[in-house]
Design a protein that fits this description.
single chain, 4Fe-4S, alpha/beta
């Protein structure tokens, strides 16, 4: 039986979304077709659409009523996570032809890596790349040649962008096809030690680079539980990719078999198959809530407090951070995967993985079972895991017990009775904090503010020895309107060092920290942002700030009279608007909405 509080929160979301969801469904119904979409095209349109196809494919596309699959790919060979996609289109085409259907690469979407751009000018494009990917997905599918969609994407903004774009074509069945994580390399705990030693000047760049290369060493996603791997978790929790397919390494027989099986399953979901299931039927209020539950139960990326909100709105579902906070009160933290622990996602997969997680949540009534998925009705399909029988996939029940309860525990005996995130509220605004990796003794900080306008300024103050004390770092003008809301990972090593030295430190920012948010209490995504005249722009050096993650409180301890007498501080941010293509994103900075509404330029 579903937990009563879960049912109540879900009903609240359904009621709030009634008008927007109905409008979305009405738009989707208007796009539904009888038979293949391409039959509506003129001869000239159609000839252009398959001019480059083989003769066999042309005959099928011209003479039969069989569906045609559009492949939207984020392949590039610079980024390890997306390099394995190089031969996926051919594998998909082969599987499609074996099912009597065709497949074409509909288009490509950009895929940038925050790991490469971290702390660089290009990072200012990162969040907005999600909306660009959504638009690129729409352009790819705009030819109206397709009856179903395969989305090939893994990392931070790519999967949310593909989801938003695909939901604009809500009448099309859609299946996501992951590529999997790289095999384990240097343990995350060792990598962090080297990063902190470098921050203190105790090792050089050569040693740092070696540690990074030993950690990120082959094709596949990074093995820590950041936004990329949180994306894969989310797609399973929302029923959008094959059960147990998220964390299978590239270049293996299982990985290849899962790619073929994804196409076999997609064919069944088309109108000519036996279980027509468009993406609009999969992504509804309950699916979105299941996604939030997965985020909380695993201690996933804080980026999804933004991305999942935007995905939901693309399907007409309105959620906010209060929904996430309320769910966090009943959803237990079941996982300890770095940065919430020492294990990586390969270890998580080996000891039970997504199948165990979902099976346990369902057994406790802590997720919605009665949903539509790409596998059919019910999340019980996802309490299973794949095994190879020859070259075929066989689904078996997920394990009843975790093989390592230091990494993965059942919902009934979890690491924490509450989820890994909290909503902070107070006179500074609203923001989120990831507490799953923050020790209980570090979740409350009351200290004077030290204000910075760039993360480089904090680094310089740290190296100058100015920060050896209790303080709250206030890093402002980092919101979406100011500079695109880059991730502020340069802050993690120095603040971590200071906390290890025994100081009480915290971070308050209108920027992001992402899936790598770690042991420092970090109040992030603060809204309204400084550029909008948010209260964060009123903070002065020395002001006392109280952050209490357990009580959900973030307060600037300055009288209302004093605050009323202050003018918002401004700074010249024009230097973050030019170079590395940033000038092209001025229209997006001008139109972007609030972080709690998804920090998106789209209006639904």
């Amino acid at each position: 039986m579903t937990h009563k509080r879960l049912s109540d929160i879900t009903q609240r979301i359904i009621d709030r979304s009634r008008d927007t969801r109905a409008a979305y469904v009405e738009r989707v119904n208007a796009m539904r077709n009888d038979g293949p979409s391409r039959q509506r095209l003129s001869c000239g349109n159609l000839a252009h659409g398959f001019a480059a196809s083989s003769e066999k494919e042309k005959q099928q596309l011209m003479d039969t009523g069989a569906p045609n699959i559009g492949i939207v790919t984020a392949y590039n060979d610079m980024l390890s996570a997306h390099q394995p996609y190089v031969d996926y289109p051919e594998k998909i085409k082969t599987a499609a032809l074996a099912n009597g259907v065709t497949a074409q690469v509909a288009g490509g979407v950009p895929a940038m890596c925050d790991g490469v751009t971290q702390g660089r000018d290009g990072m200012d494009l990162s969040l907005f790349s999600r909306d660009v990917i959504a638009m690129s997905t729409a352009v790819s599918l705009s030819h109206d040649m397709f009856d179903a969609v395969h989305c090939l994407g893994i990392c931070d903004k790519i999967v949310p962008g593909l989801m938003i774009g695909s939901l604009s074509f809500g009448h099309l069945p859609t299946v996501f096809v992951p590529a999997g994580p790289m095999p384990s390399g240097l343990p995350n705990s060792e990598k962090v030690k080297v990063r902190q030693l470098f921050a203190e000047g105790k090792v050089g760049r050569k040693e740092l680079l070696k540690a990074e290369m030993d950690s990120y060493h082959s094709p596949g996603t990074c093995t820590f539980y950041g936004t990329a791997n949180s994306n894969q978790m989310l797609m399973e929790m929302m029923g959008m990719q094959l059960p147990g397919s998220s964390f299978v390494n590239p270049g293996t027989g299982m990985r290849d078999a899962l790619t073929t099986e994804a196409t076999n399953q997609l064919v069944k979901l088309t109108q000519s198959g036996d279980q027509y299931t468009p993406i609009a039927d999969v992504i509804d209020e309950k699916a979105v809530v299941n996604g939030i539950i997965g985020l909380l139960a695993t201690g996933g990326s804080t980026n999804h407090t933004i991305h999942l909100t935007a995905i939901a709105r693309a399907a007409g579902v309105i959620i906010d951070w209060q929904d996430m906070a309320d769910l966090s009160e009943i959803i237990p933290l079941m996982c300890r995967v770095y940065p919430n622990g020492l294990a990586d996602v390969n270890r998580f997969q080996a000891v039970g993985g997504m199948g165990f997680l979902i099976r346990s949540l369902l057994s406790e009534g802590l997720m919605h079972e009665d949903v539509t998925t790409i596998m059919g009705k019910g999340m019980s399909h996802f309490a299973k895991e794949p095994f190879l029988e020859g070259d075929k996939i066989e689904w078996r029940d997920a394990p009843e017990k975790s093989l390592d309860e230091d990494v993965l525990r059942p919902a009934g005996s979890a690491f924490s009775k509450t989820g890994g995130m909290a909503l902070l509220k107070g006179n500074l605004g609203r923001c989120v904090i990831k507490v799953s990796a923050v020790k209980p003794e570090n979740r409350k900080v009351k200290a004077p503010a030290r204000v910075f306008y760039r993360q480089e300024d904090l680094q310089a103050a740290f190296k100058a020895g100015e920060l050896d004390r209790d303080f709250v770092a206030v890093v402002r003008f980092q919101g979406p309107k100011a500079n695109g809301m880059p991730e502020l990972h340069k802050l993690t090593p120095p603040l971590g060092v200071l906390q290890d030295r025994g100081f009480k430190v915290a971070l308050v920012t209108d920027g992001r920290m992402s899936g790598a948010s770690g042991k420092i209490p970090a109040a992030i995504h603060l809204t309204p942002e400084a550029l909008d005249g948010g209260p964060i722009s009123l903070v002065r050096d020395g002001d006392m700030i109280e952050l209490d993650a357990d009580a959900g409180k973030l307060e600037l301890l300055v009288s209302e009279e004093e605050l009323a007498s202050r003018q918002p501080e401004q700074t010249d941010i024009s230097n973050s608007h030019y170079g590395m293509g940033r000038e092209l994103f001025a229209p997006l900075r001008a139109e972007v909405g609030l972080a709690e509404e998804g920090a998106t330029v789209f209006r639904w």
